[in-house]
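Weekly sync notes, structure subgroup
Attendees: PM, AL, DS (notes)

Item 1: joint prediction request from the bench team. They want all two components modeled as one assembly rather than separately. Inputs as received:
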Amino acid sequence: MINKIKNKVTPVVMIGPATFWLILFLLIPLFLVIGISFLQRNGYGGVDMVFSLQAYFDMLTPEYLKIFIASFRLSVATTVICLLIGYPFAYVIAHSSEKAKPFLVLLLMLPFWINSMIRIYGWNTLLRSSGIINNVLISLGVVDVPLEMLYTDGAVLLGMVYDLLPFTVLPIYTSIEKLDPTLLEAASDLGATKLHRLVRVVLPLTMPGIFAGSIQTFIPSLGLFYISDMMGGAKTMYVGNLIKNQFMSARNWPMGAALAILLIVITLVLMRLYTKVGSLDDMV
Amino acid sequence: MKKKPFSVIYACLVYIFLYLPIAVVIAFSFNTSKMNVVFEGFTFDWYISMWSNTLLMDAFKNTLIVAVASTLISTILGTLCAVGLNRFEFKLKETISSALYIPIVIPELVFAIAMLILFSSMNITMNMVTLIISHVTFSMPFVVITVRSRLAGYDRSIEEAARDLGANELRTFFRVTLPMIMPGVLSGAMLALTLSLDDVVVSFFTAGVNSQTLPLRILSMVKKGISPDVNALSTLIILGSVILLVGSTLIQNKLEKREEM
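Output from the run, pasted for the record:
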């Protein structure tokens, strides 16, 4: 009898606190976001308890669509560049000697341990018109006037790629690591050239890694408003900055909430696609 | 592997790309010039003057308090939850397991505004507590998942043996279960710590005027120009991060070796 009670109490004590915490601070807030997106904005920066689809209709106006297109282009460009840089890089690390490998992985992880704001600030210093790169270029006589590098769309893209590259590389690295070398030997034995082997064997088999890496790059890139603040001077508006502004300056909560729902929907669609090729556990 | 100069050069270039801005921050922390433009001379001045920059120091202190507090809470809650999920079978198990992935997959920004809406609708002014709560919420799932992956190949019979020998539930947990999953708990805690130290997005929405963290302070300073104090403090933080990472990797390896014996 005592044992039976004990068997009921222990799971509650162990799992209860975490579950309770997540319900209170994760599920309820997310439901609040959904709820607020369907309410009416009032003139005082708050919301009225009146059902309204205004926020969703507003999203379809040309100025918002322009922002969505700019964000989408930035996120796709970030993901593609990260894949192009990251795949060969992951491949090189995965094929390095057993001795060097742990060190190379550590070296890849290390910047991720250093505050990303500090690192983005480092780029800010490098790129500014009176910054190091311009000074070097001028003293070498490559250019006469400093190049405008900071506060451009290109600088934002650079910051995004820089910040997210490790997240692209790690899942790809893991999937290349898991690759069965005998399959590669078999391909070679059957007469496949190196290129053939890469395209027909290696790439398809590491697809889950490529997909996981892309998602881990694409989804966060939608929300990183501080990179466009630091590197782009908030010149071009992206969806992350737009959401931030709805809560900070414009005080249009329904709009901000509706935009957040849009991000959730995009995330869910991508995750749905992803679970068809890979497992969620590979994402962590 | 055969030496391939091309791949070596390529890897070096990517590593240079990753470390370039870090190198710049470190280099300028020793620069006599107040402007982060040219290197004029070597000095340790910024390492002394930064301690009297109260804005910077307060932000640094807040960052550490939030990181340590949220890591402790999320490691304890997360470890208990992971062990519980591994041990018991119950109806909602699958639901809880998949709900744990929500904070990991949804964009940070969405979670951040959800927290803002929660606290504002309850009329709570943002402070250290709201900041710590938010950090616990996004880091705990990572702890659960890290500890659970450690538990995957875990031999339950040792626990049963302990109980057969008369150890009660608590004693079994602290003397048998916990030491065995310690590497997982440690890496979960390290992950939670890093996530907290690195966070900008969530803190931006859930920190109050008096609980600004260092990343937030840097963000607001950038527009007005950053004093070299920031470079000096950042360099110390970089050094601290490296020591922490290398240290935890060493401890991790040691724990795993001990286990193999």
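Discussion: Chain A has 13 helices and two strands.
Action: AL to compare against the crosslinking data before next sync.
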